[in-house]
Structure formats: C-alpha cells, structure tokens
Automatic annotation (TrEMBL):
Reactions that this protein is recorded to catalyse: catechol + O2 = (2Z,4E)-2-hydroxy-6-oxohexa-2,4-dienoate + H(+)
Protein name: Metapyrocatechase
Entries under InterPro entries matching the protein: Catechol_2-3_dOase, Glyas_Bleomycin-R_OHBP_Dase, Glyas_Fos-R_dOase_dom, VOC_core, Xdiol_ring_cleave_dOase_1/2, XylE-like_N
PROSITE patterns hit by this protein: EXTRADIOL_DIOXYGENAS, VOC
Keywords assigned by UniProt, alphabetized: Aromatic hydrocarbons catabolism, Dioxygenase, Iron, Metal-binding, Oxidoreductase, Repeat
Cofactor annotation: Fe(2+)
The EC number(s) this enzyme carries: 1.13.11.2
Organism lineage: Bacteria, Pseudomonadati, Pseudomonadota, Gammaproteobacteria, Oceanospirillales
Amino acid sequence: MAIQGVLRPGHAQIRVLNLEQGVHFYRDVLGLLETGRDDQGRVYFKAWDEQDHNSVVIREADRAGIDFFAFKVLDNDTLLHFERALNDYGLETSRMPAGEMLETGERVRFTLPTGHLIELYADKTWVGNDSAELNPAPWNANAEKGIAPIRMDHCLLYGPDTAAAKKILIEVLGFQLVERTLTPDREGEIALWLSCSNKAHDIAFVEHSEPGKLHHVAFQLESWEKVLRAADIMAMNDVPVDIGPTRHGITRGCTIYAWDPSGNRFETFMGGYQTYPDHKPITWTFEGLGEGGGLDYAHRKLHDTFLTVVT
Ligand code: M3P
Ligand code: FE
C-alpha cells in the first residue's frame, strides 16, 4: 500500500447564519446528500461518490466561517503516532470522544499557528455511494441532484504564520509543498499549496493578519462541462459568484468561486494535475498570482475579493 499516514481531507464543519437556509443550499443547490442531524443541531452531508458517512457538517451560529477541518488517517496506530509526534513537536492535542460527531471515531485535535483547528481521525462509518457492490454502474441518480460534486476536496485557509503551519504539516504530518507564491519583496511566502496525497493540493494557506479565517472549501466535479453546469445552477438559484468559470494557473484547476447564503466561499472545480513525492514545488511571484494568471489564468488579474473577503 503506497498511501499511508494522512489519507485525505475527511470533514469540514462550517458555520451558517441560518440552518434551514444552509440545508437548502448544501443539499438542494450544491447537491450533497443529507446523512444525519445530531442533538447539537448540526446537519451532516456527504458528496454522492464519497464512501464515509459525512464530509461536510453545518452548524448555525451568529458568524460564518469554519470550526475545524479534518483529515482521515490510515488507522488507529497512525492516529496515535501522529498524536505523539505533534506532542513531541511541542503542540498540545486533545481528543474528542467517538460519537461526538455522528458515525465518527475519536478525533485528535490541535490548533495550527494560523489559528485553525485541525482534526485527525481514523474511523468513520462506511456507508458506500449507493452503487452496487458487484459490477457497479459508473454513477447513479444522486450524481444528478444539484451541482452534485464527487467529493469534498480541499480548503484554503487564511491566517498568520503560515510558515510555521507549513513546517508542522510537512515535518510532522508528512505533507509536501506543491506550489507557493512569494511575497511582493520575494523574501517570504504569501501562499502555500500542500498535498498529503498525489493531488495538486489537499490544503492551502494565505498569509493574513486575522487568525482562523476561511477562504473556501472546495468540491470536485468530473468535467469542465459539469463546472459550466454548476455555473448555470448557481445562476438559477441566485448564488453570488466571485470568480469564474475560469482556470487557476496555480494547480491548474478549472474553477468557480462562489458564496453560500452565509457568505462562506466555496469552490466547484475539476482537474488540476497530479504531484508525486519527487516533484519540486512550483513557485509564483506575487505578480504571477495576479497578472501572471496564478489566480485566474484567463483574465490575468488579482481579483480584489481574493485577498480581502474571508469568513
Ligand atoms: C485553488 C484550487 C490561486 C489558486 C487557487 C487554487 C488562489 O483554489 O483549488 O486549485 O491562485
Ligand atoms: Fe481551491
């Protein structure tokens, strides 16, 4: 088995200002499947082709944003290994008990220097994707409801000291740096794209003075046609679009950035390339992010909202 350690993004808990409006958006417009509600009032969703019980959890609160972002790890030995490695590195961790989130095992939590709460867990109930276990069809009716992404794919987080967060993800959790954008003086890094797999990224950061901020949670689609169909569905449902449909130069993802009814940005995208542990990181200058097309290759500009609108 080649993929070990941290397997993939597992769940994101997102705050919404109105729960039923949030449910309508995530279930009926984005097209996630509702998989449960708990006694804290949280609503759980999964994308149609995900196998585990949940990947997006929403909670009503008086401000939007992200409560935590989690990665699934291989097994419980791996979870214990990372817990100890984080502690040895000097980071405090705590454990959330099994069942605190529906159908989810114990979670190890820690806070990155950027102010983001990150969780690791090994167990979540397998529910499958509603396809036959024997000789399955390539898709089923769930793949056509709303925008219907395949999976929750990655997030982009804004906060201070992204250099320290990068060090933890690389040195403790085994991520690799795939792309980066330099600061205008080229002395430091203003943005980082990191992978725990061979996706172009599983998590990304932009340097920002306020801690714990969310830029977007991203959802993967199968094709450019489906990205354009997503744009149609957004328009039909009055979803405010930020950028796109276009392509990012960075990661090469073909994308739309848009906002949920609470102002949390989300991304629907397809493509991007595969990375491998022997690849070297790609570097962009600050001008490259804007005029060089890193953010928006078609329009080659740094949209104002990119650096200023976060939740
Ligand atoms: C993504 C992605 C920028 C590139 C962003 C890339 C902000 O969000 O999913 O590929 O330059
Ligand atoms: Fe993204």
